Amino acid sequence: PRSVGGALTVLGNNLRMQGRATEAEPLMRRAVAVRERHQPGTTDLAVTLSHFSLVLRQLKRFEESVVMHGRALAIRERVFGQESSAVAQSLNNLSSVQIELGRFAEAEAALLRAAAIWQKNLGPDHPRIGIVQLGLADLYLRRGEAARAEQCWLELVIGTSAVNAVAEIARSAHRVLERDPAYVAERAGWI
Questions:
Q1: Are the C-beta atoms of 66 and 94 separated by less than 8 Å?
Q2: How far apart are CA 191 and CA 189, in angstroms?
Q3: I want to staple 158 with a disulfide (CB 3.0 to 4.6 A). Which of 92, 100, 126, 162 is the partner?
Protein backbone atom coordinates (compact mmCIF):
# COMPACT_ATOMS: atom_id res chain seq x y z
CA PRO A 1 0.00 0.00 0.00
CA ARG A 2 2.82 2.45 0.74
CA SER A 3 4.26 1.96 -2.73
CA VAL A 4 0.78 2.22 -4.29
CA GLY A 5 0.13 5.55 -2.53
CA GLY A 6 3.57 6.80 -3.49
CA ALA A 7 3.26 5.68 -7.11
CA LEU A 8 -0.14 7.32 -7.45
CA THR A 9 1.23 10.53 -5.93
CA VAL A 10 4.19 10.61 -8.32
CA LEU A 11 2.03 9.85 -11.34
CA GLY A 12 -0.58 12.45 -10.36
CA ASN A 13 2.09 15.07 -9.71
CA ASN A 14 3.76 14.36 -13.06
CA LEU A 15 0.43 14.83 -14.83
CA ARG A 16 -0.10 18.11 -12.97
CA MET A 17 3.31 19.38 -14.03
CA GLN A 18 2.38 18.60 -17.63
CA GLY A 19 -0.76 20.73 -17.25
CA ARG A 20 -3.02 17.68 -17.06
CA ALA A 21 -4.62 18.38 -13.69
CA THR A 22 -7.99 16.96 -14.74
CA GLU A 23 -6.35 13.58 -15.31
CA ALA A 24 -4.28 13.92 -12.14
CA GLU A 25 -7.22 14.56 -9.82
CA PRO A 26 -8.66 11.01 -9.63
CA LEU A 27 -5.19 9.56 -9.14
CA MET A 28 -4.48 11.99 -6.31
CA ARG A 29 -7.84 11.27 -4.67
CA ARG A 30 -7.00 7.58 -4.78
CA ALA A 31 -3.49 8.25 -3.43
CA VAL A 32 -4.95 10.20 -0.49
CA ALA A 33 -7.44 7.40 0.21
CA VAL A 34 -4.71 4.73 0.16
CA ARG A 35 -2.43 6.75 2.43
CA GLU A 36 -5.24 7.67 4.82
CA ARG A 37 -6.09 4.00 5.16
CA HIS A 38 -2.55 2.63 5.49
CA GLN A 39 -0.44 5.60 6.63
CA PRO A 40 -2.69 7.98 8.57
CA GLY A 41 -0.98 11.01 10.06
CA THR A 42 2.36 10.32 8.38
CA THR A 43 4.63 12.63 6.44
CA ASP A 44 3.92 10.48 3.38
CA LEU A 45 0.27 11.47 3.68
CA ALA A 46 1.30 15.11 4.11
CA VAL A 47 3.31 14.94 0.86
CA THR A 48 0.35 13.46 -1.00
CA LEU A 49 -2.02 16.08 0.45
CA SER A 50 0.39 18.85 -0.62
CA HIS A 51 0.62 17.55 -4.16
CA PHE A 52 -3.14 17.06 -4.33
CA SER A 53 -3.64 20.66 -3.20
CA LEU A 54 -1.47 21.80 -6.14
CA VAL A 55 -3.70 19.82 -8.50
CA LEU A 56 -6.77 21.47 -7.00
CA ARG A 57 -5.15 24.90 -7.30
CA GLN A 58 -4.42 24.27 -10.97
CA LEU A 59 -8.10 23.37 -11.38
CA LYS A 60 -8.99 26.69 -9.68
CA ARG A 61 -10.67 24.86 -6.80
CA PHE A 62 -9.04 27.04 -4.21
CA GLU A 63 -11.26 26.25 -1.21
CA GLU A 64 -10.52 22.52 -1.53
CA SER A 65 -6.85 23.32 -2.03
CA VAL A 66 -6.78 25.30 1.23
CA VAL A 67 -8.26 22.32 3.08
CA MET A 68 -5.59 19.95 1.73
CA HIS A 69 -2.78 22.41 2.52
CA GLY A 70 -4.19 22.84 6.02
CA ARG A 71 -4.25 19.09 6.60
CA ALA A 72 -0.66 18.73 5.36
CA LEU A 73 0.43 21.63 7.58
CA ALA A 74 -1.20 20.08 10.65
CA ILE A 75 0.59 16.77 10.07
CA ARG A 76 3.97 18.47 9.58
CA GLU A 77 3.52 20.61 12.71
CA ARG A 78 2.70 17.50 14.75
CA VAL A 79 5.51 15.36 13.32
CA PHE A 80 8.32 17.94 12.90
CA GLY A 81 7.34 20.69 15.36
CA GLN A 82 6.23 24.27 14.86
CA GLU A 83 9.64 25.56 13.72
CA SER A 84 10.64 23.07 11.01
CA SER A 85 11.43 23.98 7.43
CA ALA A 86 8.78 21.49 6.30
CA VAL A 87 6.21 23.55 8.21
CA ALA A 88 7.54 26.72 6.55
CA GLN A 89 7.10 25.12 3.12
CA SER A 90 3.51 24.18 3.99
CA LEU A 91 2.82 27.73 5.16
CA ASN A 92 4.26 29.14 1.95
CA ASN A 93 2.13 26.79 -0.17
CA LEU A 94 -0.98 27.60 1.84
CA SER A 95 -0.40 31.34 1.48
CA SER A 96 -0.38 31.18 -2.32
CA VAL A 97 -3.92 29.78 -2.32
CA GLN A 98 -5.05 32.23 0.35
CA ILE A 99 -3.81 35.05 -1.90
CA GLU A 100 -5.88 33.66 -4.78
CA LEU A 101 -8.92 33.71 -2.48
CA GLY A 102 -8.23 37.30 -1.39
CA ARG A 103 -7.50 36.24 2.19
CA PHE A 104 -4.62 38.65 2.41
CA ALA A 105 -4.30 38.89 6.21
CA GLU A 106 -4.14 35.09 6.55
CA ALA A 107 -1.68 34.82 3.67
CA GLU A 108 0.55 37.54 5.08
CA ALA A 109 0.62 35.86 8.50
CA ALA A 110 1.52 32.52 6.90
CA LEU A 111 4.28 34.09 4.79
CA LEU A 112 5.77 36.02 7.69
CA ARG A 113 5.77 32.87 9.83
CA ALA A 114 7.41 30.90 7.00
CA ALA A 115 10.06 33.62 6.63
CA ALA A 116 10.79 33.60 10.37
CA ILE A 117 11.17 29.82 10.40
CA TRP A 118 13.42 29.75 7.34
CA GLN A 119 15.54 32.66 8.58
CA LYS A 120 16.05 30.87 11.90
CA ASN A 121 16.81 27.49 10.31
CA LEU A 122 18.58 28.49 7.09
CA GLY A 123 19.81 32.05 7.58
CA PRO A 124 18.59 35.38 6.21
CA ASP A 125 20.24 35.02 2.79
CA HIS A 126 18.85 31.60 1.91
CA PRO A 127 16.95 31.41 -1.42
CA ARG A 128 13.78 30.32 0.37
CA ILE A 129 13.58 33.80 1.91
CA GLY A 130 13.38 35.06 -1.67
CA ILE A 131 10.39 32.80 -2.27
CA VAL A 132 8.64 34.47 0.66
CA GLN A 133 9.60 37.92 -0.65
CA LEU A 134 7.98 37.09 -3.99
CA GLY A 135 4.84 35.88 -2.20
CA LEU A 136 4.67 39.04 -0.12
CA ALA A 137 5.23 41.22 -3.19
CA ASP A 138 2.36 39.44 -4.96
CA LEU A 139 0.13 39.85 -1.92
CA TYR A 140 0.92 43.56 -1.48
CA LEU A 141 0.44 44.26 -5.18
CA ARG A 142 -2.95 42.54 -5.20
CA ARG A 143 -3.90 44.44 -2.06
CA GLY A 144 -3.02 47.71 -3.79
CA GLU A 145 0.15 48.40 -1.82
CA ALA A 146 2.62 48.97 -4.63
CA ALA A 147 5.24 50.63 -2.41
CA ARG A 148 5.37 47.60 -0.10
CA ALA A 149 5.57 45.28 -3.11
CA GLU A 150 8.46 47.32 -4.46
CA GLN A 151 10.24 47.09 -1.09
CA CYS A 152 9.93 43.29 -1.24
CA TRP A 153 11.36 43.20 -4.74
CA LEU A 154 14.27 45.45 -3.72
CA GLU A 155 15.02 43.26 -0.72
CA LEU A 156 14.91 40.24 -3.00
CA VAL A 157 17.29 41.75 -5.52
CA ILE A 158 19.82 43.44 -3.26
CA GLY A 159 19.08 42.10 0.21
CA THR A 160 17.54 43.73 3.25
CA SER A 161 20.79 45.05 4.67
CA ALA A 162 21.67 46.73 1.36
CA VAL A 163 18.22 48.38 1.13
CA ASN A 164 18.62 49.72 4.67
CA ALA A 165 22.16 50.93 3.91
CA VAL A 166 21.07 52.77 0.76
CA ALA A 167 18.21 54.41 2.67
CA GLU A 168 20.59 55.54 5.42
CA ILE A 169 23.06 56.93 2.85
CA ALA A 170 20.23 58.86 1.20
CA ARG A 171 19.09 60.27 4.56
CA SER A 172 22.66 61.25 5.45
CA ALA A 173 23.23 62.88 2.07
CA HIS A 174 20.00 64.81 2.44
CA ARG A 175 21.03 66.08 5.89
CA VAL A 176 24.39 67.24 4.49
CA LEU A 177 22.82 68.90 1.46
CA GLU A 178 20.26 70.69 3.62
CA ARG A 179 23.20 72.64 5.11
CA ASP A 180 24.39 73.80 1.66
CA PRO A 181 22.78 77.20 0.80
CA ALA A 182 23.19 76.62 -2.96
CA TYR A 183 21.36 73.29 -2.74
CA VAL A 184 18.60 74.82 -0.61
CA ALA A 185 18.18 77.70 -3.10
CA GLU A 186 18.14 75.29 -6.08
CA ARG A 187 15.64 73.00 -4.38
CA ALA A 188 13.38 75.96 -3.65
CA GLY A 189 13.23 76.50 -7.42
CA TRP A 190 11.97 72.91 -7.91
CA ILE A 191 8.89 73.51 -5.84
A1: yes
A2: 6
A3: 162
